[in-house]
């Protein structure tokens, strides 16, 4: 992963700050070529699925935009629309496919096929192990994994049946979700091996 990590920092800089990021587009293309060859990234894009009925913009385009958004630490869904204006996404999605607005991405992700997503994640981890990734990224020969809980978001406005709750002194309640994550420590990859929902009704 080391050979990929360095140019990515450069891509991130260009992606976030420069309008018309042609150079970023080229670097991202190199990255996707590598990711496709080693980790089956193109297949992952093709297999992306969600439960919307007859959508104008299909799941693979949503996946591409959301993936690179997350990859470059996008701070909000609104930032996605601003990044789109730099032209970088245009180079990732075929010309005949319309780019999704942040609202469309949000609607698709609410109905995302998480089983398929988990299957893909397991394939990446499998491939990483075949490539001896955990050994290469060890710390003095030790393979280190951290297991920790993390809160994903919270709101006072809405709850689903799976929400955890936190009561405040002013009688208001936070509704939130949390996961337990097993993540590699050491090296460049910081890969998440697996995660599991925490609390709720389950
Ligand atoms: Zn919930």
Q: Which keywords apply here?
A:
binds zinc ion; alpha+beta; globular; Transposase; 17% strand
What does this structure look like?
The protein folds into 2 domains: 2-121, no CATH class; 141-197, no CATH class. The protein is built from 8 helices and 4 strands, in the order ααααααααββββ. The protein has helices spanning 2-17, 22-39, 41-47, 59-71, 77-84, 102-110, 114-130, 133-136; strands spanning 144-155, 164-167, 173-185, 192-197. Strands 1, 2, 3 and 4 form a 4-stranded antiparallel beta sheet that branches. The protein is globular, with a radius of gyration of 19 Å. The relative contact order is 0.12. The model is unreliable at 1-6 (pLDDT under 50).
Instruction: Tell me the distance between the termini.
Output: 36 Å
What is the makeup of the main sheet?
4 strands, antiparallel
Beta fraction: 15-25%
The oligomerization state is single chain
Shape verdict: globular
Low-confidence stretches: 1-6
Cα-atom radius of gyration: 19 Å
Mean pLDDT: 82
Order of helices and strands: HHHHHHHHEEEE
**Helicity, in percent?**
40-55%
User: How many domains in all?
Assistant: 2
- The total of beta strands comes to 4
Q: Number of DSSP helices?
A: 8
Bound molecules: zinc ion
Question: In a few lines, what is going on in this structure?
Answer:
With 202 residues, this protein is an alpha+beta fold. The chain is 46% helix and 17% strand. It has two domains: 2-121, no CATH class; 141-197, no CATH class.
């Amino acid at each position: 992963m080391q050979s990929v990590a360095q140019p990515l920092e450069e891509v991130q800089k260009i992606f976030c700050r420069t309008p018309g990021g042609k150079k970023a587009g080229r670097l991202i293309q190199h990255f996707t070529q590598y990711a496709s060859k080693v980790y089956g990234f193109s297949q992952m894009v093709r297999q992306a699925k969600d439960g919307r009925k007859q959508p104008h913009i299909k799941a693979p385009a949503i996946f591409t935009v959301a993936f690179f958004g997350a990859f470059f630490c996008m701070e909000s869904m609104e930032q996605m629309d601003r990044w789109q204006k730099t032209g970088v996404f245009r180079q990732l999605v075929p010309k005949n496919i319309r780019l999704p607005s942040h609202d469309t991405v949000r609607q698709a992700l609410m109905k995302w096929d998480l089983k398929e997503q988990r299957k893909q994640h397991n394939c990446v981890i499998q491939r990483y192990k075949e490539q001896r990734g955990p050994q290469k990224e060890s710390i003095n020969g030790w393979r280190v994994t951290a297991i920790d809980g993390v809160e994903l978001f919270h709101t006072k406005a809405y709850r689903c049946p799976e929400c955890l709750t936190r009561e405040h002194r002013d009688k208001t309640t936070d509704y939130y979700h949390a996961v337990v994550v097993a993540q590699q420590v050491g090296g460049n990859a910081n890969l998440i091996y697996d995660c599991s929902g925490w609390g709720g009704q389950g």
